[in-house]
Amino acid sequence: MSAAPEGLDAFTDLLDYPLYVVTAATATERAGCLVGFASQCSIEPPRFAVWLSRANRTYRVARGADHLAVHLLPRRHALAELFGGQTGDEVDKFAQADWSPGPRGTVLLQDVPAWFVGRVLDRFDGGDHLGFLLEPVAAGRGTGAAPLTFQQASDIEAGHPA
Fold first, then answer.
1. Closest to 136 measured CA to CA, from 89, 68, 87, 83
2. Pairwise CA distance, residues 76 & 119, whole Å
3. DSSP at 16
4. Which tens digit of pLDDT belongs to each residue from 7-29?
């Protein structure tokens, strides 16, 4: 495994991007986690990529899911703390969050600025994270406007450290 180049932290420490909760569901399981590595990656056709840590339960459930739901988070920390500071290996996060069944068998969180459901087109290796290339098939706008960003949530300790 190659190490990051010296000084890369000087670049990455300045990044400030939206945080997301990605939820995954199969016929028998559901999971969700806080995600910082995600981005729109094509305009036409529309595509979005999310990267899930191989260390967490959501990754394991998402490997068997055909669709994932991607949620922008409100600036309040509650959802970020729940989905980023707890591990689904130990707690049922959905027992503590308002959610509803979504399109294509997904799980949608309530009280978020926006969400979309994407069909998994491909999965690819990204090192300690696995990338999921998504084709959006449904979307919605919720409450609030400005999403929570990485810098605003830097005080949350990971429930499942990498």
1. 68
2. 28
3. -
4. 888 887 877 778 899 999 999 99
